[in-house]
Amino acid sequence: MDEEYDYIVLGTGLKECIISGLMSIEGKKVFHMDKNAYYGGNTASLTPLKALFDKFGVSANLEQFQKGKDWNVDLIPKFIMSNGKLVLLLMYTGVLRYLEFKQIEGSFVFQSGSIHKVPCNEVEALSSSLMSLFEKRRFRKLLVWVMNVDPSDQSTWENVYNPPLNLKKDTIMHAFSAFGVDEDTQNFVGHAICLYPDDSYKQNVPAVEVIERMQLYSKSVLRFGKSPYVYPLYGLSELPQAFARLSAVHGATYMLKAPFEQIVLEEGKVVGVKLDGKLVRCGAVICDPNYAPDRVKKVGQVVRAICILNHPIENVQNSLSAQIIIPQNVVNRKHDIYISCVSHPHMVCPEGFFIAIVATTVETAKPHDELKPGLDLLGTIEQVFYSVEDLLTPLDDGIQSQLFLSSSYDASTHFESTCADVLEMYERITGQPFDFSKVKQLMAKWNEPESTD
């Protein structure tokens, strides 16, 4: 083992593995380790099925679930936006060659007491059961306008209403008002299309960001046709493992079951990591919150329920995989409830079974009860595993100490917030933002239509 590295990375969660891969590609000397015997950290997929039962201390007759080795159960629910930033990072690093993806068959929203497909184009807008006839027309006009907006061409957006819209200063409420869309339409646009976890975007986010999110969703649906999401075969842990493989190809050193003791600082700055009594020196440490608990603060909690079903979820158009979002105000909450569902086409369970995960941000002293609106949509549940985890975020930016921490994974069922954290960390570590122009040509190739069925 080399005695000194540019970076030591602690933890093999997806965020840490992406950063490790980016640094390795850029020619940095990286030592990447994990206290666990498996890759993935909080983004691990547990297999065989017994590992899941053991982790949660649950005993059951596992024969009813068929072959245990056919199960790969994610600890957190996340899908990949097919035109999102994670795909760009997968392309830039070359990790795509290590992975196989299959689309998620449907994206839905719970509103007015039932589940509806999220409309994302003109045809779906006019046929959606979400809206009245007149509201469909208003939403269609909004959608057509959004898809034609070019932030660099003022003529495409300024005259949407009187007085003219300032795309970078005004909020999307100006456009909502101009097109006359009602509150229910605003709900599914903001939460099921733009994927905001609460309504603060209506007051605090410039219209351009909301419009770009709507465009991203629609373009991602166009990629495969049924939903904007894809998912890696064999579970989410395939993602950090693929990045680990990439880092190793570029010279990174890896160690699982690492005898980690502590991060060592001198005069407030990182000098290395102590392993089994020996100091391994480095210029900086990158880690998840578990490795530096004194450097993070709790900003909330996430409650999740991993559910094993022996039937598909009803009212999702016979989809074998789906995302369902329950907007906050539909169930008198401050945060949305998220449901993800995958099954045998994704190689995560035997045929006839389904894995559904319900998650939300904790608001009360009874977090399990907060999941009830989501659990009620699942029907009969064969087995459920509950978890409540703290949401942790770094106390500082780490620039002075050269100790860079990621934040915990939120309750959402997509990786957009995860990528935002990765890119923010990258800028803190390197002093410059990631240059997405590097992957424009690759993205054009990815967008060539093809089928994943």
Task: Write up what this structure looks like.
By secondary structure, the protein is of the alpha/beta class. Among the domains are: 4-56 and 233-296 and 393-446, FAD/NAD(P)-binding domain; 118-224, Guanine Nucleotide Dissociation Inhibitor, domain 1, CATH 1.10.405.10. The protein has 14 helices and 19 strands. Strands 1, 2, 10, 11, 12, 13 and 19 form a seven-stranded mixed beta sheet that branches. The chain has a seven-stranded mixed beta sheet with strand order 8-7-15-16-17-14-18. A hairpin with a 2-residue loop joins strand 12 (269-275) and strand 13. It is globular, with a radius of gyration of 22 Å.
- The CATH topology of the domain at 4-56 and 233-296 and 393-446 corresponds to FAD/NAD(P)-binding domain
Biggest beta sheet attributes: 7 strands, mixed
Mean pLDDT: 92
Task: Count all strands and give the number.
Answer: 19
* pLDDT < 50 runs, ≥5 residues: 449-453
Gyration radius (Cα, Å) is 22 Å
- Tell me the helix content: 25-40%
Shape descriptor: globular
What is the first-to-last residue Cα distance?
45 Å
Helix and strand content put the structural class at alpha/beta
CATH class of the domain at 4-56 and 233-296 and 393-446: Alpha Beta
CATH architecture annotation name of the domain at 4-56 and 233-296 and 393-446: 3-Layer(bba) Sandwich
- The total count of helices amounts to 14
Full CATH superfamily name of the domain at 4-56 and 233-296 and 393-446? FAD/NAD(P)-binding domain
Amount of beta strand:
15-25%
